[in-house]
Design a protein that fits this description.
Number of helices: 6
Structural class: mainly alpha
Distance between the termini: 11 Å
Length: 129
C-alpha cells in the first residue's frame, strides 16, 4: 500500500509542477519574467495569482506526512481519505475549492497538465485493485 500511495504522491507532484508552470506563465504574461527560483517561491507563497494552487499543495503535504510515518501500517482507509480529498477538490458542488477549479480549468488545455493528470488518475484507479 505504501509504495502505491508513494506513486500517487509522485504523480500529484508532477501534476502540481505542471499547474505551477502554467500559473507562472499566466503571471509572466501579465507582469513580465519571474527573476529566478527564489522570486518564484516568493510569488507562490505571497502573490494572489498563485493562491488557487494552495488546496492541492496542502493535500500533497498531508499525503507526504502520512507516508513519512514509517512505523504506521497504511490501509485502505488511507486510500479512501486521499480519494475523498481529491474528489472534493475537483467536485463542482464544493464551493470551498472554486478558485482551484477555475485555475485548473484554465490550465487543463496544456498538454503537460493533461498528461500528468491522466497519470495520477491512473495510479489512483490502480489503488482500487
Amino acid at each position: 500500500m505504501r509504495s502505491r500511495l508513494t506513486a500517487l504522491a509522485q504523480g500529484l507532484r508532477h501534476f502540481h509542477s505542471a499547474l505551477l508552470d502554467f500559473a507562472k506563465g499566466e503571471y509572466e504574461f501579465l507582469h513580465g519574467p519571474v527573476g529566478g527560483p527564489f522570486a518564484l517561491y516568493a510569488l507562490v507563497m505571497n502573490d494572489p495569482s498563485f493562491q488557487w494552487l494552495r488546496p492541492l499543495s496542502g493535500l500533497m503535504a498531508t499525503l507526504d506526512e502520512v507516508l513519512d510515518t514509517k512505523d504506521t501500517t497504511l490501509t485502505e482507509r488511507n486510500v479512501q481519505d486521499v480519494r475523498q480529498a481529491l474528489g472534493l477538490l475537483f467536485a463542482e458542488s464544493d464551493t470551498r475549492f472554486a478558485d482551484f477549479r477555475a485555475g485548473y480549468t484554465r490550465a487543463r488545455g496544456e498538454a503537460r497538465v493533461r498528461e500528468t493528470e491522466a497519470h495520477w488518475r491512473e495510479v489512483l484507479s490502480s489503488l482500487e485493485a
